[in-house]
Design goal:
Strand content of chain B: 25-35%
Structural class of chain A: mainly alpha
Number of domains of chain B: 2
CATH topology of the largest domain in chain B: Rossmann fold
Oligomer: heterodimer
Radius of gyration of chain A: 20 Å
Strand content of chain A: under 5%
Helix content of chain B: 25-40%
Number of helices of chain B: 10
Number of helices of chain A: 12
Largest sheet of chain A: none
Distance between the termini of chain B: 35 Å
Strand order of the largest sheet of chain B: 6-7-8-3-9-10
Number of strands of chain B: 14
Low-confidence stretches of chain A: none
Distance between the termini of chain A: 23 Å
């Protein structure tokens, strides 16, 4: 019962942000379907590719080759920086606002003096995070589905359910890490900086390790390595990717519970 | 009578800093208990330890007969709390704040209407966001949230901070009413007159150590009386010195601090001197306090 009251508390605090982010994600995924290339456009672009020098061709193939189809372009929408930014805003906002902000602001005294266990507080924050991510990802997928109904492309909305689910899992893992940080610090600013930094560094590492061979091996350290919509579209989600992201989620969740239980408020 | 609060060897350290050292204390159910001490004495730390907001470095505590364990929650069901540094959610209205905190308490807010009326918070005020409240209004809302569910135990940290004298009077009436309902009140304060007025017993704390615990009357009785005398003709101060500490003296007047048991002997001696006037002031709690903290 009190967990539901706490969940309502999170909802009250984010009731404007969640619909805005949801509309943003739905609108962006819809836009992706409007600008995705048709088969004729893809053929034209491939012809241009054919006339550039071989090393450039290789680089272009590596960077955008898989997105060079209507289907691939839509999958790319799930790792586009705009999508990541919108999901990241929710992740940072909920996790830093749930524990660290209440402690820093002083309102945690009022919450923690009620008959609510600390585990319930972490659990409610986690539920708010995951529920919000579900709504956002569902909104994005719906935008994409509406776009596909109104434009003829060689893709079906159902093809992107797995990509959407992996984006959810990726940010759930980031969110659980962020919640562990939020459970440990006293100020929301510190939690925001740490979480935003973690996501940014992870993204940059994945991008650089893909583009620069000498550090390619470091890619496994980035969580973005385990969410590749193009690969999911071609072969379905990989068991290893699921295990890594699910494992990070489980470990970080446990850490958040343990840290918050043991700390002074 | 059972204990509403009990601490046994309760200690809290932050690195080398000992915020609270070996506190053993028992507060009976139905009592109004005052907790006195200067800033940094450990009052707030003690309250936060009782609430399980802090983990003790040593010792333990019981609240309403249940062991305090920071991770668990059931023992806080009957507890109301007003923090010393009250922070509220600025975007919430007063009414939303009270509803939210009552629903977290898991008990109906049976006393809310009476408290709001007594403290002068109107329903129009409750519709406004808390960010528009003055400090005094926030403090009133803090008092209401602490007592609205009629807790068996209320821990109030500096409850009259920011209240004007009129509202302070209303607050004392609120305390009396809560007490009639059987609520045990544990109140920390700097305001000695307040503690003297509302509390049955008082504990004094300095630098994390308990200095004394006792009934207000008991503490007063243990305190030396201030005796002022005026004579018709000059009397040497040395004649009075055996009865207590001579604080000030002149040819025809003197002021002494005299232990309770030495008073009869002093009065007998004064009867033999050319006495013009005699005033024996009952000791105030403030004097007890100052004597401890000087």
């Amino acid at each position: 019962m009190t967990a539901l009251v706490l969940l309502g508390h999170h909802w009250r605090r984010h009731r404007l942000a969640l619909p805005l982010l949801g509309c943003g994600l739905a609108g962006f995924q819809f836009l992706i379907t409007r600008i995705a290339p048709t088969s004729e456009q893809v053929g034209f672009i491939r012809n241009i590719f054919a006339v550039v020098p071989a090393p450039v061709q290789e680089l272009l193939q590596q960077q955008i080759g898989s997105a060079l189809s209507g289907r691939g372009f839509l999958a790319f929408g799930w790792v586009h920086p705009v999508t990541l930014l919108l999901l990241g805003i929710w992740t940072v906002r909920v996790t830093s606002g749930a524990l660290a902000r209440e402690i820093g602001h002083g309102t945690m005294d009022l919450l923690a003096s009620r008959p609510i266990s600390r585990a319930s507080q972490v659990g409610a924050a986690l539920a708010a995070l995951l529920l919000g991510l579900t709504i956002l990802v569902a909104a994005g997928w719906t935008g994409s589905a509406i776009g596909l109904v109104t434009r003829s492309l060689d893709a079906r909305a159902g093809d992107y359910l797995a990509s959407a689910a992996m984006a959810w899992l990726l940010f759930a893992a980031f969110g659980a890490l962020a919640l562990a940080v939020s459970a440990a610090v006293r100020e929301s600013g510190v939690a925001i900086a740490a979480t935003a930094g973690l996501i940014t560094v992870s993204f940059a590492l994945d991008y650089l390790a893909r583009a620069w061979q000498p550090i390619h091996a470091l890619r496994i350290l980035s969580l973005f390595r385990y969410d590749e919509p193009q690969r999911i579209l071609a072969a379905g989600p990989s068991g290893i990717d699921l295990a890594v992201l699910g494992g990070v989620l489980a470990v970080a969740m446990s850490l958040a519970f343990i840290i918050f239980e043991r700390r002074d408020l | 009578m059972s204990a509403a609060l009990e601490a046994r060897g309760l200690s809290k350290s932050y690195g080398r800093l000992e915020a609270l050292r070996d506190l053993s204390l028992r507060v009976e159910e139905g009592e109004v208990f005052g907790f006195l001490g200067p800033n940094g004495a450990g009052k707030t730390t003690t309250i936060r330890l009782f609430l399980g907001l802090l983990h003790p470095s040593a010792g333990g505590a019981e609240v309403l007969g249940r062991a305090v364990r920071p991770g668990s929650a059931d023992w806080r069901l009957d507890v109301g709390y007003l923090p010393g540094e009250l922070a509220l959610w600025p975007g919430f209205s007063g009414a939303v704040t009270l509803d939210f905190l009552a629903s977290l308490s898991g008990r109906p807010a049976v006393d809310r209407a009476a408290l709001l009326e007594r403290l002068g918070l109107a329903s129009d005020d409750l519709r406004r966001p808390v960010r528009e409240y003055s400090d005094g209004m926030k403090q009133k809302l803090g008092i209401v949230q602490a007592l609205q569910c009629r807790p068996r135990l209320a821990l109030l940290d500096e409850p009259t901070k920011g209240l004007d004298p009129l509202v302070q009077q209303a607050f004392y009436a609120v305390l009396a009413e809560a007490r009639r309902h059987g609520t045990t009140i544990f109140l920390s304060s700097h305001v000695l007159a307040e503690v003297e007025r509302v509390c049955d017993r008082v504990a004094m704390l300095r630098s994390g150590r308990l200095l004394s615990v006792g009934g207000v009357e008991e503490l007063r009785a243990a305190q030396r009386r201030r005796v002022s005398v005026r004579f018709l003709s000059p009397v040497a101060a040395s004649e009075l010195a055996p009865f207590g500490e001579v604080v000030t003296s002149g040819p025809d007047h003197a002021q002494l601090l005299v232990a309770h048991e030495r008073l009869p002997a002093l009065v007998a001696k004064l009867g033999m001197l050319p006495l013009a006037d005699l005033v024996v002031e009952p000791p105030r709690l403030e004097e007890v306090f100052l004597e401890h903290y000087r």
